[in-house]
Write the structure tokens for this entry.
Amino acid sequence: MSATERGESKIRIRPMEPMDIDRVLAIDSKITGVRRAATYTDLIIGDLGKIPDLSFVAEVDGEVQGFLLARRDYFGEPFSEEGMIHILGVEPDYWRQGIATRMVDALAETCQEKKLNAVRIMIDERDDQLQSLFERSGFRRGKLVDYTKKFKK
Ligand SMILES: CC(C)(COP(=O)(O)OP(=O)(O)OC[C@H]1O[C@@H](n2cnc3c(N)ncnc32)[C@H](O)[C@@H]1OP(=O)(O)O)[C@@H](O)C(=O)NCCC(=O)NCCS
């Protein structure tokens, strides 16, 4: 049994730094499978490695095993200043240990400290796992509906 399984490992949540990008992309490609030319995470971080301002990583025993990309954004009219989560991911060997929850809770706390009005994420309505994760952290389904016009390629 590993130290992690025995609950002895130390999880630390901290803001994401440029030095974390390679590790974040490695976790992302492990989750998404075969490395594609560009993943969604690559696109969000961008070529210049500009990290969205409310992003976090989770370290377990000093190594990054989870990431959450989020930024300050504006919604509605009159507008509300909120935190917007783009994506989060945890190294598969570390799933179901509360790491994602810890990152989401750290983000929510930071958004409150920064006097933002809320924190938000778009979730597929069929994704019960992700909905359960966020509901357990106090998120509730909102009233905005996704309207999209798709283009043929
Ligand atoms: C989704 C993901 C980030 C969850 O990370 P995690 O650290 O394992 O999540 P947590 O341990 O904090 O889980 C909290 C709760 O969420 C729910 N949950 C998380 N993963 C689940 C799963 N595979 N099946 C069912 N419920 C799940 C459970 O309610 C869980 O609580 P429990 O373990 O006490 O039952 C991780 O599975 C992942 O990286 N998945 C691939 C990428 C992805 O889907 N990202 C989200 C798109 S933005």
About this structure: The beta strands are 11-15, 56-60, 63-75, 80-90, 118-121. Residues 31, 87-90, 95-101, 129-130, 132-133, 136 surround coenzyme A (CB under 6 Å). The two ends are 50 Å apart (CA to CA).
